[in-house]
């Protein structure tokens, strides 16, 4: 059985004064307020979303 890699995404910046695209990406990731965290499966789609809002989030590996 293979185990999928998980990553923890924590929002560190506010979405106030951000472009609408960044606001929608943060919402799609399941975040919304600074210091909120979610655990997601590490996929190319999630990595692309993280890359779009890399100035607002930090990413950690979950074991």
Describe the protein's architecture and organization.
Strands 2-1-3 form a three-stranded antiparallel β-sheet, with no helix packed on it. The chain has one domain (6-62): Ribosomal Protein L30, Chain: A. The mean pLDDT is 94. It has helices at residues 20-28, 44-52; strands at 6-11, 37-41, 57-62. With 63 residues, the chain is α+β, with helices and mostly antiparallel strands. The chain is globular and about 40 Å long.
Straight-line N-to-C gap:
16 Å
Give the biggest sheet: 3 strands, antiparallel
* Largest sheet strand order: 2-1-3
The CATH topology is given as: Ribosomal Protein L30, Chain: A
The overall pLDDT average reads: 94
Unreliable spans: none
Number of helical runs? 2
CATH architecture designation: 2-Layer Sandwich
DSSP strand content: 25-35%
Shape: globular
What would you call the structural class? alpha+beta
Share in helix: 25-40%
Cα-atom radius of gyration = 12 Å
| CATH top level label | Alpha Beta
Give the arrangement of secondary structure elements.
Blueprint: E1 6-11, H1 20-28, E2 37-41, H2 44-52, E3 57-62
Antiparallel strand pairs: 1-2, 1-3
Describe, in short, the structure shown.
The protein has two helices and three strands; from the N terminus they run E-H-E-H-E.
Question: Which terms would index this structure?
Answer:
single chain, about 60 residues, alpha+beta, Ribosomal Protein L30, Chain: A, three-stranded antiparallel β-sheet, 2 helices, about 30% helix
């Amino acid at each position: 059985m293979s185990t999928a890699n998980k990553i923890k995404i924590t929002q560190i910046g506010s979405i106030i004064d951000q472009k609408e695209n960044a606001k929608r990406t943060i919402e799609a990731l399941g975040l919304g307020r600074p210091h909120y965290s979610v655990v997601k499966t590490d996929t190319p789609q999630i990595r692309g979303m993280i890359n779009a809002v890399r100035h607002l989030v930090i990413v950690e590996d979950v074991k």
